[in-house]
Design goal:
Layout lengths: L1 H11 L4 E6 L4 H13 L7 H7 L4 E7 L5 E10 L2 H4 L37 H8 L2 E5 L5 E6 L9 E6 L2 E8 L3 H11 L17 H11 L6 H11 L2
Helix pairs in contact: 1-6, 7-8
Length: 234
């Protein structure tokens, strides 16, 4: 993560967007949320998340004002702090079975509360959504980047995307947290660039052209744009 934070400092000096990293002032401040998060998981809290949240409370992307200073009131994207990610550490809902129809009457916890319960067509979809932990709420949309700590994987988690208007839109983002953040610090969530790492066809040349229009003149971003282009090649 040290390399990531060094890269943020470099980018902050060269672009009109500015990342604000909130760091804990003492070990106690970050240890308590980490311990609470661990208590929700049957497995060990994944190393990638431990490394990030043991040194960082949150990460905000802000616009800079005309004087060249960052404006905290114009946050356009943010990586959630642990308390928000785990919905204030409320008890995780128990999975529903096919025979239990009551799931459509449950007042779902965040992020499920973004839907009317009737929009869940079956218990499997409800269970999948209900175990998601929000990493980033995409500003100006109903989209969410989430973390699934409960699906079996070699890293101990899976990053996913879903849209509150359509629960069935949930899909895996084939990136680790460090890999995701290494693009996020360049593009924020602009034009859903992460679709280049989901199902084939979700990201197209049209999207790449929009990325180029927004960031193409920045020398710091050229290599990352090339990498995104490689992802959409047949």
């Amino acid at each position: 993560m040290t390399q990531l934070f060094d890269e943020i400092e470099k980018l902050n000096s060269e672009q009109k967007l500015y990342f604000i990293r909130t760091q804990p002032i003492s070990k106690k401040i970050f240890l308590k949320p980490l311990e609470k998060a661990q208590s929700f998981l049957s497995n060990k809290f994944p190393k990638d998340f431990h490394d990030f949240y043991s040194t960082t409370i949150d990460l905000k992307l802000c616009y800079m004002d005309k004087s060249g200073d960052w404006d905290p009131n114009r946050t356009i994207s943010a990586v959630c702090w642990l308390e928000k990610m785990f919905d204030k550490f409320k008890q995780h809902p128990e999975p529903f079975t096919e025979k239990q129809k009551d799931y459509i009457k449950v007042k779902a916890s965040y992020p499920c509360s973004k839907w009317f319960p009737s929009e869940f067509k079956d218990h499997k979809l409800f269970n999948e959504i209900s175990r998601q932990k929000v990493l980033i709420e995409i500003e100006g949309t109903t989209g969410v980047i989430s973390v699934d700590f409960y699906t079996e994987s070699k890293n101990g988690y899976v990053l996913k995307y879903f849209d509150a208007r359509n629960p069935e839109s949930i899909c895996e983002i084939h990136l680790t947290l460090p890999e995701f953040l290494n693009y996020y610090i360049y593009f924020g969530t602009f034009d859903h660039w992460f679709f280049a790492f989901t199902k084939k066809g979700m990201y197209t040349l049209k999207n790449i052209n929009q990325i180029k229009q927004e960031f193409g003149k920045l020398n710091t971003h050229k290599q990352k744009i090339v990498e995104l282009e490689q992802r959409i090649k047949p």
